[in-house]
Amino acid sequence: MLVHIFSNLVISIFNIGNEYPTDLVYSSFLSDVELKIERGTLFAFDKTLIDYASIGDLLNGYTLDKKDRFTIDKGNIVDLKYTLHMAEKAGNELQNVTADMEFYINVSGDKIIDDGDDNGGGHKDEGEVKPQSTAIPHWAHDCIITLLNHHVIVGYPHEKYTIEDYFNGTVDPVVYVNEVVQPDKFVTRVETAVLIGRALGLEPDNTKTPPYVDDIPEWAKGYINATTDAGIFVGYPSGEFKPNEYTTREEMISALIRAFSIKLENSSLQLPFKDKDEIGDWALDYVKAGYEKGIIEGYPDNTYRPKNYITRAETFTIICKLKGWHPEHDK
pTM surpassing 0.85? Predict the structure, then answer.
């Protein structure tokens, strides 16, 4: 039996250095980075399956010629060698740029099974083969999918898609993450409370008015009460909660470390970040605890940027680690 695999190619480009615009890096990588795949056995490669096709062309759909398809019999092995290089036609617009690039080839996706009969004797698996998405996964895609599956996050109201569409499989997960979850938006304080409440499995308390002088959105009052009662939030000295203000990186890690009862074991621990002196005294031990437990790592330029607003994706990744779900997909 010959199995034809319609592979899904997933590209992730992150940690872009030298302040290059993300869009420029993505578009240049997709058009100018080329992939070659060779096949062999015991590291003797004698067959070229893909001969330096651009990443962009591969994302638009690529199927091996029939003569290049192969089967792996039981007990046999096949070695594949993947080579990436920058095309000669590439310009100099990315000179000196640094970036981390990951790509995955999924060989267990939609497939057509052919019984080897060239006269039409093949048959399809149950279900119709769906066209492959050309959407580019977010760098935090796996963490976001994990949190969606555990009902910690849902996403924003969308004109086309709902969470039911995600669970029913009627929307591409990459599209749902990018368009509905919107991982690059900053996190407000009210969103932080709801995220933490769901992550901890707290029961929202809608029986009372939150103990703050400013207005709390109706949809969040239950979790504001629950996280306040749990001692995770206390509000500002003015009595305000400031629900619509964005949460900084040091505020988020402090709230999450309190929420998950993480304790700093080595009080003499020295943070490696070159901007560590910018961390507020009130947040320093929380940041240290997060670093000590491997929950936070900082940026490639060895900064932590404590006063920067934190994105939803960064928050989701921290929660994913705190819940112990990260090893499920961090390969």
Answer: no
